[in-house]
Write a structure and sequence with these properties.
Aspartate Aminotransferase, domain 2; four-stranded antiparallel beta sheet; Aspartate Aminotransferase, domain 1; binds pyridoxal-5'-phosphate; about 45% helix; single chain; 15 helices; about 400 residues
């Protein structure tokens, strides 16, 4: 067996023996894994269904059309592009479709929970565009008044809503109204919450956003990729041109097939129950952590993720996430709002429930997980205790459905 296949086996086992609390990760179904490893990867298909540059597209056209139709149905959109290679290129395609270099955009800042592609200075979105950022209130909620003031002062051409590390529901209507008042476009990047939006457990950006982007591989539980959705035919044409030929060449047909399967799975009633459970588990994990003296940014959660403010625990997010990883609990270090520490040693960790909910964990299991986390904090320098916790974690998580 090649070294790579050996490493894949090891990674599969590692995932099976870990409590995976990274808020942007999940487990895809066996059908999706089959699609990803299929003959579709052998095919070039530049263009769009029934308008391609190469022959031999009869099945590829059908697959991409099914993906588009399911995306439209799931999100109540008139137009869907399913070809963007991932979330970052999808956002870039929207900027390429709507903006000129140096145009002004307004998005949530990275330290407040936004994404790099929402205008951070290390991203092309912050280098080639004039990027202005909004933040949070001291209570950890989006500062809508600040958005309004910045919009009036800077007149951005595009306002971005959406986030990578924010625990409350987004008021898309309020942001849409601000955008309308200054004649700006409103892009809702719902990468983190698209499953919750699709199933109605989080408010929908339409009709208050002009365009929605989302990755397909987080709560939505598909393979890596992205959707760009709109109800505006003019914008739809511009977006299609921006994706191909503007930014990309041949679409990744195997991923598009996997996305089509994920969307079909998300249209089934069980997926709504799954999303409800994701939120119930996040709330239960938050309450269990609070009962052990942990502080949560914004006091709790209304979605699938939690931000733990570690300042009262005398430990930084880097040290804790590494110690948790050593006992097979995967999290990521994360800045907390107004964090004065460096992003390499921030004062928080981010926890999410999408992956563990796919395995079938319920509210009562969140008590067990909170207990493991608390034990790690209390035994941070005790290697024997950590080794014992690791054994308990593996015994606990391997009781659940395996992927
Ligand atoms: C809100 C948001 N947008 C875009 C992206 C980028 O997606 P990708 O990593 O697929 O490029 C992410 C990924 O974390 C995200 O959280």
């Amino acid at each position: 067996m090649s070294t790579i296949l050996e490493l894949i086996k090891k990674e599969t086992l590692r995932q099976a023996q870990s409590i995976r609390l990274i808020a942007s990760e999940n487990y895809v179904s066996q059908d999706i894994l089959i699609a990803l490893g299929s003959s579709l990867t052998n095919k070039y298909s530049e263009g769009y269904p029934y308008h391609r540059y190469y022959e031999g597209q009869e099945y590829i056209d059908e697959i991409e059309t099914l993906a588009i139709e399911s995306a439209k149905k799931l999100f109540g959109a008139e137009f869907a592009n399913v070809q963007a290679y991932s979330g970052s290129p999808a956002n870039l395609a929207v900027y390429f479709a709507l903006l000129e270099p140096h145009d002004t955009i307004l998005g949530l800042s990275l330290p407040a929970g936004g994404h790099l592609t929402h205008g951070h200075k290390v991203s092309i979105s912050g280098k080639w565009l004039n990027s202005i950022s909004y933040g949070l209130t001291p209570e950890g909620h989006i500062n809508y008044e600040e958005i309004e003031q910045l919009a009036q002062a800077h007149k951005p051409k595009l306002i971005i809503s959406g986030h990578s590390a924010y625990t409350r529901q987004v008021d898309f209507k309020r942001i849409g109204d601000i955008a309308k008042s200054i004649g700006a476009y409103h892009l809702a990047d719902i990468s983190h919450i698209s499953g919750l939006v699709a199933t109605g457990v989080h408010p929908h950006p339409f009709p208050d956003a002009d365009i929605i982007t989302t990755t397909t591989h987080k709560v939505l539980r598909g393979p890596r990729g992205a959707l760009i959705l709109t109800n505006n035919p003019e914008l739809a044409t511009k977006i299609d041109k921006a994706v191909f030929p503007g930014l990309q060449g041949g679409p990744h047909n195997n991923n598009i097939a996997g996305i089509a399967i994920a969307l079909e799975e998300a249209l089934a009633p069980e997926y709504t129950q799954y999303c409800e459970q994701v939120i119930a588990n996040a709330k239960a994990l938050g309450e269990a952590l609070k009962s052990k003296g942990f502080t949560l940014v914004s006091g709790g959660t209304e979605n699938h993720l939690l931000l733990v403010d570690l300042r009262n625990k005398n430990i930084d997010g880097d040290t804790l996430s590494k110690a948790l990883n050593s006992v097979h609990i995967e999290t990521n270090k994360n800045s907390i709002p107004f964090d004065t520490a460096s992003p390499f040693k921030p004062n928080g960790i981010r926890l999410g429930t999408p992956a563990i909910t796919t395995l079938g964990l319920k509210e009562a299991d969140m008590e067990t997980i909170a207990d493991f986390i608390n034990q790690v904090v209390e035994s941070i320098d005790n290697t024997d205790t950590l080794a014992h916790i690791k054994e308990q974690v593996i015994a606990f998580i391997t009781q659940f459905k395996q992927y």
